[in-house]
Amino acid sequence: MRLLSVRLIVSLILGIALVSSGFSYYEVLGEKRALRSDVERRDEILGESLVGNVERSWNAGSDKELKRLVQRFGNREHLLGVAIYDRQGALVAVTPELEKTLTVSPPPVTQAITLGHEESSFVRLGTLPVHILALPIRRQDEVLGGLAVVHDVSYIRAQILLVWRQTFFRVLAQVFLIVLITLLIVRWSITGPIARAALWMRALRTGKISFRQEVPDHLDMFRPLAREVATMAESLSHARNAAENEARLREAGESMWTADRLSVQLRTRLDDSHLFVVSNREPYMHQRNGKVLDVVVPPSGLVTALEPVLNACDGTWIAHGSGNGDAEVVDAHDRLRVPPEDPRYSLRRVWLTKEEEEGYYYGFANEGLWPLCHIAHTRPLFRAADWQYYQDVNRKFTAAVLEEIENVAKPVVLVQDYHFALLPRLIKEKRPDARVAIFWHIPWPNPEAFGICPWQRQLVDGLLGADLIGFHIQSHCNNFLQTVDRVVESRVDWEHFSVLRQDHRTMVRPFPISVAFTGDDAAENNNHGFNYLDRSALMRGLGVEATFMGIGVDRVDYTKGILERFLAIERFLEKYPSYQGKFTFVQIGAPSRTHIKRYHDLLAEVEAEAERINWRFQGGKWKPIVFLKRQHSHQEIEPYYRAADLCLVTSLHDGMNLVAKEFLAARQDEQGVLILSQFTGAARELRDALLVNPYDIDQTAEAIRAALEMEPEDKQLRVQRMRKVIKEHNIYRWAGNLITELCEVRLDAPEDMQEKSRARVSVA
Ligand code: F6P
């Protein structure tokens, strides 16, 4: 640094001195030129006024008059004098001071006489620099001799020397000032911020601050660099944690699942192959808002769960490109690398028309299958036109999958959810060598309930094209197998939980989905420096004062039991009035599928219900319910999870529900109470939650009281046990088990496959 400063100073001095001297040189040259032309001008005026008198005296033959004339010009400022010569160059008259030096005519005079016109030049008389102006003396056209006006110009040199001296001091002052100012600017705007940036990076590297924290304002000029460094620090921290974890696991002989273990597992299992995930919802949506292109992570349990899997194995995720700016960022094959900040896998976007989205997504999937599978008392709507779009879009996605796996040997395809029941068979028909699994993220109802779907046979048949079908829990598997038994011709093997249909075997298994939790607090320490005691600050931010806080995080969906939850809070405050003014429930509600009337109305109902209850109880700075009606990022939700005394998950029916698991993962302090609906898949694993029937308002109200009054030791024991469950059954295990199971499936023999394909083509 010191060497750098010396170099900088020396270069500055040399540079400024060089530039300044260059300018000064031209300035001096100009000054010299001006002084010289001043002398020339003055001599010219004098010469021209004198030559007339000289000519008159010469013509009158008056030598006396000529001598008198020349004597008048001695001793004037810098004027040495004048001299008159005859035609042969002999001196006729001269100012006495010049008598000795100008005995013979100087060259300008000789030239003026010979050429007959004025001559002027700077010459030396001995050592003295002079200017001589020579004029011809005439009688009519005849040149009789020459007149010389002689000026001492030694003062010009003195003057120039003076200018050089002044210039030297000016350059010196300039160099000093410019170097000083430059050094101050460099210190304030470059070395200072660099030093601060270095301190910040060191804090990042040593884990004193989180890489998820925003880059501080004083590092604004380094923002792009700082972001890259933060990403690098994150990767480093992950690598370090993974290595530590690995060592710890080896030491403890545990069989815990981590991102790294999954990645190794996938590499071994997939061999040279590649993992392809297909879902309707994409993990990143690009939203164009005027000039800004925002990246949005949709509020989806499926996205929360699958993103870490794709990050771990660099696969390809094929999904509907639903953002209005999505098309702007894809390549010619509709692909891009994500996550945008730290690309690790490929996202292939599939485009749908408005009509397709309306019929397939809003219509058949979400007005038909969604209420059909969630027994939540909203009537499913089945329209033939929607069914047609559902089939078309399943075919469209099949085409995209086939394109992606075209040159991949033995690809592994994980289809997601109820949007793509037909995909497994469609893919297998074209690529029998592909291993295809479908994971159904929502419940599978009993056969009677499923039976109201007019196209149940086609749906079940489509699913049975898969080699493996996954549900969250065993009872969904059982319901599915019973449905298969009733709907299509097949052999259900209850011993091995598989179905044999048209010589193709499909395994049916429970894989409880989860979150990316490894229990490694250092790795998961993304609390933005949030302190558990910051609850009141969090509440103040919402404009509320309360001693106790509850949290709920949901898409605003009628299956989530949000209204029932609000009624339970009302009942709790009614029954236990001492909590009025003290307990506030924060409901984060992401508007969802609002294009569907039922969802649109529900959003208004939830808002109105919160308002009604608030109106009934609120007072001063307290109110019972804060409804935050917008999608929040995981980072925004995290502080609420950490600050809450309890988390309410009251789904009327839910495949799994990851909010319950996210809440526990966030509780490094091993505090907080989870109140969980017994109708969620999560309730099978999280037995230490306070399990409730969300339809039973009184029971939920009691659970709220029990949670708020639970002893800290009891809370700790429960949270500890549940964190252990989700640590051991995390998303890496889910993916590892699912893919291992899929890779172990014995594919039909190649000749059989060709035979089957031929048979299908001839039937078609
Ligand atoms: O549970 C089914 C599911 O696909 C979840 O993965 C997710 O939480 C939710 O539905 C998202 O719904 P959508 O993609 O329609 O917004």
How many strands, which pairing sense, and closed or not: the largest β-sheet? 10 strands, mixed
Counting H and I runs of at least 4 residues, what is the number of helices? 23
- Give Rg in angstroms: 47 Å
Low-confidence stretches: none
Query: Strand order of the main beta sheet, please?
Result: 10-11-9-6-12-13-14-17-16-15
Beta strand %: 15-25%
The average pLDDT is 90
Distance between the termini: 78 Å
Oligomer: single chain
Q: What is the structural class?
A: alpha/beta
Cofactors, ions, other ligands: 6-O-phosphono-beta-D-fructofuranose
Overall, the morphology is elongated
Measured as a percent range, the helix fraction is: 40-55%
Query: How many beta-strand elements?
Result: 23
